[in-house]
Amino acid sequence: MAKQKKTLTTTLIVLLLFVIAVQFIPKAERNDSARGAKAITKQYDVPEKVQSILQKACFDCHSNRTEYPWYSNIQPFAKFMEGHILRGKDELNFDEFGSYAIKKQYNKLRSLENQLENEAMPLRSYTLIHHNARLSNEEISLLTNWSKALRNKMDIKL
Ligand code: HEC
């Protein structure tokens, strides 16, 4: 019994040291300043309803306006979130959308429709915490219809 207790104490101490140690892993936050002329809202007509859905469900990973919550300062959450946020921004940044070539814009919009129709975006790990980012079927069709209409207009330029 005494031995078991000792093992438990050692395990807890090791765990505690580990949790402390990982806090020293550097945390990277990134919010590039560009949100002016290249933003999708400046380049295209984005109805207010669409904008507000994008903002509540996508902007934390796909814009230069990430709102970092308090737990983003705590490891290992920081590392986990950082990966999603940086990769998300690299794949698609609504604040830099206008700097993409038209063909890339077109493909990103088509991908957006696929992601939404497959319910792959927003990421499940995100909606688990951000309940208001869960999209209703109505919101999904609002976004995909807007995206399709925008692509149709782009077709002319391709
Ligand atoms: C928690 C972060 C996060 C949120 C929130 C999020 N995404 Fe993503 N998104 C990612 C990551 C990370 C990727 C990169 C691919 C992957 O790992 O699945 C990605 C990829 C994508 C892609 C693929 C781009 C390509 O090149 O094909 C699209 C489109 C997309 N997201 C759209 C959205 C939309 C629309 C929303 C909101 C409804 C959204 N995402 C919300 C993190 C996020």
Set down the secondary structure blueprint.
Layout: H1 2-22, H2 40-43, H3 48-57, H4 59-62, H5 77-91, H6 102-117, H7 124-127, H8 137-155
Helix pairs in contact: 3-8, 6-8
Bound molecules: heme C.
Heme C binds at residues 57-58, 60-62, 84, 87-88, 91-92, 108, 111-112, 115-116, 121-123, 126.
Report on this model:
This protein is an all-alpha fold and 158 residues long. The chain has one domain (2-155). The chain contains 8 helices and no strands. The protein has helices spanning 2-22, 40-43, 48-57, 59-62, 77-91, 102-117, 124-127, 137-155. Helix 3 (48-57) packs across helix 8 (137-155). The chain is elongated and about 75 Å long. The mean pLDDT is 91. Bound molecules: heme C. It comes from Olivibacter domesticus (Pseudosphingobacterium domesticum). InterPro entries: Haem-bd. This is Haem-binding domain-containing protein.
Can you describe this structure in just a few lines?
This protein has 158 residues and is mainly α.
* Largest beta-sheet characterization: none
User: In angstroms, what is the radius of gyration?
Assistant: 21 Å
Helical proportion, percent range? 55-70%
Content of β-strand: under 5%
Ligands:
heme C
List the total number of helices.
8
Q: Taking all residues together, what is the mean pLDDT?
A: 91
User: Which regions contain 5 or more consecutive residues with pLDDT less than 50?
Assistant: none
- Number of E-state strands: 0
How many domains, as an integer? 1
Q: How many angstroms separate the termini?
A: 75 Å
Sheet/helix structural class: mainly alpha
Helix and strand pattern:
HHHHHHHH
Shape: elongated
